[in-house]
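Side project, low priority. Logging it here so it doesn't get lost.
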Amino acid sequence: MLKTTLAALAGLVALLSSTLAVAAAPDAHYKITTGPERGTYIQIGQDLSKWVAQPAGIDLEVLPSKGSAENVQRMRFEPGVKLALVQSDVYQAYVDMANSGNQDAGTTIRPLRLIMPLYDEEIYFVVRNDSPMKTINEIKDKTISVGLIGSGTAQSASTLYRLMFGQTIPEQNAQHLSNEDALAALIVKKIDVAIIVAGQPAKLFTDMDPNLLQQIRFLRVDPNAPETARAKQTYFPATIHTSSYPNWLKEDVPTWTVKAFLVTYDYNLRDTVGNLKRFADSLCANFDNLQEHGHPKWKQVKLELPGLGKGWQYYRPVERQLKACFAHRAAVQAAAGTGAPRAATTQSSNGRPCTDQERVLLLCGKQ
């Protein structure tokens, strides 16, 4: 009798444990595409997974990538990818190409929606310490690593060069290297400049061997150069602070910046809409945790949804959720007396040669 009772109790415990495990399981398994392993995007994705998705009952897998253009493609076409981090100039490049009649760009970008703007990413122009160059406007006709095809860095580098000098980077001068490979090539004098986009402090530099760091430095924006005035059409002034790299930089370095956005798709399935609304509520509710425990860039993020340019749209269900939550937070703070805080080919889909812009945005060879 005792054995029978114990066996029954064991079975009941096992059943209860199984039931609790099912109840505690995440309601959804989603993915977010981010950026290189030692970049800022992947850390932001990890923060969102831990401090936002988990409390909302979402298992959010953080995927590394080459960067923004690849993220747009995977957000649009890869199963399970519900969120992506994308640079503003990359998003705008797709919108511009769609408006100019590029059907592939239109098919890719028009169903995408923004959740919210995040923070500004600094654009680093890195040279060897013995380089005669001092300012960014001196990079014309130099051998430059512009970032991997499909990366936001490649878009920023090519756009800045075109704005500053009125021409594309000559093909023989452009190298499409990863950030790590670019710095290695720079040190051994295979290239003259490495352009890197990353929010400060960037692990790429903070994790770098101090002896190697002493062999490189950043170029500065020259406020009086005509090239600088032309770059201001799209990019905004920024500063790389000594406090981000206290054991290396001796003074602040003026540079350019580009905005990072959290992006999704215009979903209308009830379960997906519900999960993303819970994600939005959790983002608002756990924002203080992100700022306290997440990457330092979270301290620059504001709980606001500013107006957007033509061709840009917020994801409506999340927009309503966030605005309501932001308003509630602001009211609570006011009452408390505190302030509100795919592989590229060489032809486009219609058979003509690909443009540089299409190659960077991974629109070559799409069907």
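Brief comment: Confidence is low (pLDDT under 50) at residues 1-24, 340-346.
Revisit when time allows.
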